[in-house]
Amino acid sequence: MKDANLSTSLDSDGILLARIDMPGRSMNVFSAAMMDSLEALLQYVETTPDVKAVVLTSAKSAFLAGADLEMIKQFTEAAQRDSAEQLHRLCGHLGRLFRRLENSPKPYVAAINGLALGGGLELAMACHLRVAADDDGVQLGLPEVKLGLLPGAGGTQRLPRLVGTAEGLQMLLRGGAVSAQRALELKLVDQIVAPAQLIDTAKRLAQAAIVSPVQAAWDRPGAQFSSAPYDFAQPDVFGRILQAVGVSAQQRARYPAYDAILHCVVGGWTLPFDAAYRYEMDVFVKLIQDRVAGNMVRSLFLNRQKAQKAGLLGPESALARGAGALLPRLRDTAREARELGVGEDEQLLAVTLAAIAAWAAGAAPQTELADAAVVAEGLHPAYTGGPFNYALQCGASELRQRAAAAASISATLFAVPAGFDDFYAAAQRTAA
Predict the structure, then answer these.
(1) For labelling alongside 157, which of 74, 125, 324, 391 has CA 20 to 30 A away?
(2) For the whole model, what pTM was predicted?
């Protein structure tokens, strides 16, 4: 099999070793092209009699480090215009591929040699068996909640069924990763071995699985799973779980991914797996239509990387130096708002108005990158995408009304700045 993202070799026992190796990238990620490569691999394995089993690994130091963020950005943009049916087709493609892999009569063994995050861990969980290298570089996790999203390729269904609800919900709701040793203790992987033994061990597991086929626990007839230590039928079980994992009521209110993840796990718990996965995708589509995910993807990752390259992050950046610079202005405004004792919404409003004033004074010409810098400084929360993005999503009329209502608290802090209308007019020209 020839593919730009996969190198393959077939041994005399019929075991195909497939190494993921995306050209031009330091780490493998799930992009549209990588999904096409996985689909091509599945097709090749299904139609090639000489292939009896597959060992999936990576030719890089990481196994597979999640999704391509540019692709996720495209998903969030599509969510603002496409129908739910279109989004199901677009966003559900990877999950359908994983299910096809999982249902294959030819066993797949994941040989995890490094980071397996997001879609990387979802891919490994869809394999029939998993072996990991006993190495500090091996970390397994589902960090999607940090993007305002949920793992939508079956991750909310497979992970808690594999490791139990206590650890599974902790990993899903906090986005943390576990070591190879901890993964073994949790039964997230079947074995850990020295890195030099990884491929040989994976091949032995594959050979054994040819003789004695392995089926996922959730696909066995009559499969049932305990939700202990939680009772999913208990009133306010969401609140109880979030309290147990350390998510505050304020975080829950601002970041819809927390409730969405809980809806997936609790709502899908007693369903057959295919129905549970469809339910997960229903929830995923509704979540991605919320603006929070797009705001977080842009401000925390994509635009932050661009701002870093442009030298706009850090204490010596143009946005941070001098009293007239953007960040010192917003820092002073945020402090004044806190000293007045106003709530979070008024604090956001004050900082947003100050940001527009700074823009009018020429202190923030690249508003998208400035947003990333402001979020990085903790002066605007990630769910807003930054003050300029927040202003645009609120709209000029709403912001004016809120400023007028808050002016009774402080006419100075909540004054509509000169250049307010120019900011919105400039944004309209850019959009056009």
Answers:
(1) 74
(2) 0.93
